[in-house]
Amino acid sequence: MSSDILKTMLYLKKYFTEGLIQMAILLSLCGVKVDVGLEPYLPPSWHEMILGPASAVTQTQFHNLRNRLEDGHGLHPKNVDPDGYFTARRLLGWVRSLDRVQVPHAELETWLVQREPDPLPMECPDQPSLLERAPAAVERERRDPSVEPRALRDNEEGTPGRGALDERGEEEEDEEDNLARMQQFYSRTEGGRRPGGSYGRTNRELTRNEEDPTSFYFQECLRLLDETFPYTEEQELSDVGSRSGDLERHPPGRNPLLSPIIPSNNPSLDLELCWQDLLAIMEPENTDVDDDMMTSFDHAPDSRPSGTPWGVGSAALHQNCNNLDNGITDVDQEVPLMETPVQHGLLQSPSQSVLEPALLPLIPSAELDDHSSALNTRDILKNTNMNTLHSPPDHMDLLGEDPSDFYMGQNAEDNSSPLNINLLAQDIVDNMEASPGLQYDLYPEDTASFNVNFHLHDLTPSSSAASLGGNNMTQDLLTSPSSVFLVDEEDIGDDDGLPSPLSDLIVDAAILDERRLLDIALEEGFSPEMAARLEEEGYLDCEVAKQDTGRDDDHSVAEDPCEPRSHQQDGEEEADSDSGLSLDFSHSPASPSASETSYYSSSSSSSSTTSSSCVSAVESPYYEDEDEDEDAEAEEGLVSSDMEVEVTIKQEELEEEEMGAVGGGFPEDVKLFPANYGDRKLLNGFPWLEHIGHDHTYNQPWSSTSPPSLGKMPTKHTKSSQRHHNRRHYHYSSSRHISETKMWSRDERRARALKIPFSNELIVNLPVDEFNDLLTSFPLGEHQLALIRDIRRRGKNKIAAQNCRKRKMGVLLGLEDEVSGLRRHRVRLLREKQDALRNLQEMKRRLNTLYQEVFSRLTDEDGRPLDATEYMLHFGDNDNVVVASREQEAWLPQTGEKTSKKQRNKKK
DNA sequence: ATACATTGTCATCGG
DNA sequence: CTCCGATGACAATGT
Where's the BZIP domain (predicted)? Predict the structure, then answer.
């Protein structure tokens, strides 16, 4: 019972914190008076405080608040934290400035709209909402993608529609791994090499500083809430200590942050001190706030949402990503830059959140669910440290005070992960803003990270995980400005400065081990990758990811124990082996043109190339993970799965597959051969292979999924679209095996069955000579040869069919155009005809008039006027005009002279 | 459940 | 005659 109550309280707390409080604050910022209905739950002073920032009322409210606080209302007697003083001061100043701040309504509204759903999910942790999931996705992202194939999968499946519970379940499963990975990740980051160096740091720092006030304000509010519900903190602390799955239940770690900022044994005292300090300091700070506040504010609202579905920002981010992917250069990038503010806000929010526990709640609760408390805690620390570095001394003091406290107080899990990611993204964004061109050129890695981050934001929570794709994350850590933070954090040190609780957590052997692996992976796996990428104009990135996949195929079964390592190693190894080919085929089906262009044409611009590569990498891992899973399962259950599929398939296939049911053996062959021989030698040697991917439909199918091993790609990707859809159902549908199996085309399966050492792509795309050489150079059985030839034939025919259809479509379109052109011509002709008729009518009319006029002047011999109805004019050859009677036309000629005489006379 | 679209494959034709 | 591409037709699958 008590636990339930506590939970309920927590939820309520979450609800208040994340939902109502922030909403109220934001609304108040907009000048809207909000009645959240907190009165019953909150002390009046707090209520005011929450609503205080509202427009012009702010100062007064704060004053009141101050008074109340001074009265001893809910202040923490024990806490005379100097840090708190600064914090309070800053916060106060910030709050004051709020009055003057104008929050863009549009952004605010958007934020609010997006934000709104949050509270609900918070209430029911068991039923994570989209928002919750978003953070989860982020969390996943944090993990090294390469390390966590599953994460990718989750992301893929983690579409909004998907049941949150499922995800959660998965998350729980991965909880330990996640924690370990997170630790590794951060340790790695800390250890960090950051190519980017301090680059872009200045801007970021400024931004954060600006935003800090907001965060602090929120923190204060949250803290107050926390204090109101004392249970939470203790609970959270215990939770953190336990580092158990319970973490997910906790409200998105505002508590952790709050506690660190202002150690609050006695909430009331703390508040009093803080607020007093703030009031005292208010005056000086205000000045700064105005300018800063504007910026910060613009972002602030958005930032929260970032935790959520990232609506506004996400779009922008997405655009950025796309732009980058497409290799769009400066011009195109302008769009992203323009949007930067929003993005910035979104991205920055994380940083803020780091600083501000209050903000954290905004972040989808999913993060909380992640359970990576240790890691999260770490992240928080890092973030805090980072913020400290960038933020004014105040934060430094607060944060720097005692990392351990932070950990103790925090539900590390809640905010940290998203925050970190956000920070990274923010950093990237900042960098972009600061020096877009420079950034890209100088720090391609940043771009990569940028992409990753964007993906995180862009992609729905689920998709974000994909972005984690590992490589990107690693790059981010290593290269991105964020690395700076990380480095700084390092000092505080996971290992060194970690507070006892955290250290204990970290100490966990498994975690350390994973972490170590991660480090290794990052160091070994990525640097080569980078080099390779540079060498191959960014192709390798994709390849690496693909390689990972391919690797997975081979070792997926064994990987589980130490995924990170295997992945990384795979990446390294295969980086060498796979190169061009996989890349060629890695084009995403969704946007073949874009991807292609970016890939090949964009190579000119480092930024674009990088971005594209990164994107592809992201994608590829994404798919790869699936592939990995598929492969793993395929290998494991190749027999079973194949059998299932084969049920539908013809007997020959069955036979073949049975023969090759060995499945497990095949991967090796494929890997060895295709990778080394086919990919490396042949593919590199044959530029045409690349082109295949471009305009040939054949490749498109596989495009997004760089086939881990050259073989099997065609069908796989053919079904890529299907995959996307299937992903959702994968885990939970019994048909998973089937779908996976279907990933491979029949030929692929057959090839596997017969252990054909060449990839289908190779078989199909090689020139005749090469193909023959290939066949001759390897001892192949009849069946194998026959199959290879069939594969080649079918593959060729497939391409031919595609081309044919394309051509047909072209012809069709051409005919349609022609038809439309003819229609237009017809219309024009009709119009001309109408005009001609009109002219004719006019001429007739005028002629008639002329007739009338002429006859009116003609007279007969008797001098009587001629009736036009009775007579008519005849124009003779010799310019003679004769008036003839209509009745006497027959004899006119005879009388012509007469009439003519008459006329002449007349004329005369 | 149906119609339509897409894609792969086969059979065939012609260069 | 063989090879290979083009294309119609069919089937499977997805939307």
Answer: 787-850
